[in-house]
Amino acid sequence: MMVSGQFLAVGVKLIYLLKKNVIKEVKEEAGIDIAVKRLIAIHDSNRHYKGMFPYGITTVFFLCESVGGSFMENDRVTAKLDSQFLVDDPAD
Q: Domain limits at 23?
């Protein structure tokens, strides 16, 4: 029973640290203050792409709500938006 309690404590601390990091990164990159409402999903690439990568990738998804601040354009966000949403106009 003690072992499972230790694993639970580590898991709770890990989620807490991830939430704090999400809040910090959104503030740094976009200038928006957020509140993390809940954990939505954890995607473990090793379960879906066995043998494709020599390392593991875990993606964590949170539901967040804007609680203040305002979007501040910066080089990192602008470059990402331009590359992700740039669509060539076939009429050109």
A: 2-85
